[in-house]
Amino acid sequence: MDLERLLKRHDSFDWITSQELDDHRQIVPEALTNFASLGVPKASDYFTPKEEQEILELVKKQVVTGVELREKLKIFVEESQNYDSVPTKQVLEAMNTSDRSLIIDTITSPQESAKAIISRLYKSVNIKTSK
């Protein structure tokens, strides 16, 4: 899930400009019943009702703040309107270019990503030396 990636990676460029004056109003976790109550009703289009409730639980369990979740949902909705990673990944995988490409899920830690890259490089070297 791309939202999970946004919530975990904490990159400084993951922000969205908003002209709304109430963007930083206090969000009471108990008042969150859906994404509309968080101020991002379009986000409901991308999740099942069960997933929506599980995501809202992150605020209630204090895993993320309501403001952080709202901002990440806004980014997610904006990104989703321009780019859908699931079909893109499926197309890339269907091209059968595994001998010369690597798809890495950015939700993994930098160490896990580095391990995948190093492993792929070793395989590439072995392929080239065995021919």
Structure description:
This protein is mainly alpha-helical and 131 residues long. 55% of the residues lie in helices and 0% in strands. The protein is built from six helices and no strands. Helix 1 crosses helix 4. About 6% of the residues have low confidence.
Condensed summary:
This protein has 131 residues and is mostly helical.
**Mind summarizing the main beta sheet?**
none
| SSE order, one letter for each helix or strand | HHHHHH
Tell me how many strands there are: 0
- Which structural category fits the helices and strands? mainly alpha
Shape: elongated
Strand % is: under 5%
Radius of gyration: 19 Å
Instruction: Kindly state the percentage of residues in helix.
Output: 40-55%
- Average residue-wise pLDDT: 78
Please mark out the parts with pLDDT under 50 across 5 or more consecutive residues, or reply none. Answer: 17-24
Total helices: the number is 6
Head-to-tail CA distance between termini? 39 Å
Layout of helices and strands, plus pairs?
Layout: H1 2-9, H2 35-38, H3 49-60, H4 66-82, H5 85-94, H6 110-130
Helix pairs in contact: 1-4
Main attributes of the structure:
131 residues; mainly alpha; 0% strand
